[in-house]
Design brief:
- This protein is of the alpha/beta class and 427 residues long.
- It has 18 helices and 14 strands.
Length: 427
């Protein structure tokens, strides 16, 4: 499979180039040149084989089938349990991976791909990642112990949750954590400056691991696939998904599966008050406003970078897209009420992001034999500060977190001045 640059259709690259490069010219995202269509899907086969069938065309020759099978197996080493709320309403939990958020799937897959490709490379690979909390630990976990790869994480000092900080700073080994005296945007600026600085490329091949990388985007199809398989085997013939959305990478992976012929009727993109896309569906204009801090901070995004891929999937046609996708925004008050409602009604504890996904699902009117599913993107304990206050109950701590408490936090505090960061990179 070849990939083209959405900002420069003449730039065509292989899967390997798309992964190692991250972005194309003019900061363009890569997009598959063609999308395979599946006429007859055999849901009776085991999930791993189905997953291989779906991902194989996107990887092509870049990774041998046997190796790809291994990568998929390691990526899906944890379960995606489906929780029944009503006879046709479900929550799928995507947070049973090592860092308790769905980003583990994409990060794991990308790490395994880069590991595979780095064997051929002479220079060491260095992954630079700016994070507001969840991405950094998922990427670190994926790359921990991977030979010839070093990971540098930048996070805004004192602006991530206690558990997120614990996760970011206790890896050690080939993972280095930097706390930046500034905001998430300052972290992102440091990474961007580094990519413009040829001096840091002499010893290392530097790449970024944020959600625009195709190796993080494509494997996210897998948990939609697993959910569809489970529900089809239960007798449902159509499925609609509500996805709590920030950068729209997650939902865009589900939409790719629909294009490939899987029985999905509708998508709801549920956002917090950072509502650029819900407003777009009202007035057809993408108007960016300053980012607002909310309870669902992993979705505090005002320019969703993957939306351009969604537009491409639907031929850049507003009306076609509108038939499939609804976008709705919810504020913190509504989010708190939903967390409390889920707890009181179903004795179910949910994180603020997932609660927004649940609210989005309530807007769907399923047909007979249709199932509605909302994606639960993080374990509530990652946001214990706010959730415990809302439900007035302590959330039991999973062992993956309590295990980290006795470990040493290793972190270097830096200013948002690029010269200081550059010195670290040149050492
Ligand atoms: C990253 C994240 C999201 C948003 O996903 P996108 O792919 O950026 O739309 C939602 N919930 C949680 C918990 C996240 O970490």
């Amino acid at each position: 499979m070849k990939y083209f640059n959405l900002n420069d259709k003449n730039e065509l690259v292989s899967f390997e180039q798309a992964v190692t490069q991250g972005l194309g010219k003019n900061k363009g995202l890569f997009f598959p040149l063609s999308i395979p269509y599946f006429n007859n899907i055999n849901y009776e086969q085991d999930f791993q084989s189905l997953a291989l069938e779906v991902l194989q065309p996107y990887i092509g020759e870049a990774i041998h089938t046997k190796q790809l099978k291994n990568i998929i197996q390691q990526t899906c080493a944890f379960d995606f349990p489906l929780i029944t709320l009503e006879k046709n309403k479900f929550i799928v939990e995507l947070f049973h991976g090592p860092t308790l958020a769905f980003k583990d799937v994409g990060a794991q897959f990308m790490a395994l791909c880069l590991d595979h490709f780095s064997e051929k490379q002479i220079k060491k690979t260095r992954v630079l990642v700016a994070t507001s909390g969840d991405t950094g630990s998922a990427v670190a976990s994926g790359f921990y112990g991977v030979e010839n790869v070093e990971v540098i994480i930048l996070f805004p000092k004192d602006k991530v949750s206690e558990i997120q900080e614990l996760q970011l700073t206790t890896f050690g080994g080939n993972i280095s954590a930097y706390a930046v005296e500034g905001s998430f945007d300052d972290c992102q600026n440091l990474v961007k400056e580094a990519f413009n600085d040829s001096a840091i490329f002499t010893k290392y091949n530097n790449t970024s691991a944020n959600s625009i990388n195709v190796a993080r985007w494509l494997p996210q199809t897998l948990y939609y696939l697993k959910t569809i398989q489970t529900l089809v085997l239960k007798g449902f013939d159509k499925i609609s998904f509500s996805v709590p959305s920030g950068n729209f990478g997650n939902i865009c992976a589900g939409m790719l599966l629909q294009k490939m012929g899987f029985p999905i009727r509708k998508f709801v993109a549920a956002t917090n008050v950072n509502d650029t896309i819900p407003r777009y569906f009202q007035n057809k204009i993408i108007e960016i406003k300053p980012t607002i801090s909310t309870l669902s901070n992993a979705m505090d995004v005002s320019l969703p970078s993957n939306f351009i891929r969604i537009q491409q999937l639907y031929g850049n046609d507003f009306d076609t897209l509108q038939k499939t996708l609804n976008a709705i925004s919810f504020n913190d008050e509504e989010t708190k009420k939903a967390i409390l409602h889920l707890y009181k009604t179903y004795n179910y504890i949910t994180c603020p992001h997932s609660a927004i996904g649940y609210l989005g699902m309530q807007s769907l009117n399923p047909n007979a034999n249709e199932a509605c599913v909302c994606l639960s993107t993080a374990h509530p304990v990652k946001f214990a500060d706010s959730v415990e206050q809302i439900i007035e109950t302590k959330i039991p701590e999973p062992s993956t977190i309590s295990m980290l408490r006795p470990k040493n936090k290793i972190v270097t505090v830096i200013t948002k001045n690029y010269n200081e960061f550059q010195q670290m990179l040149l050492q």
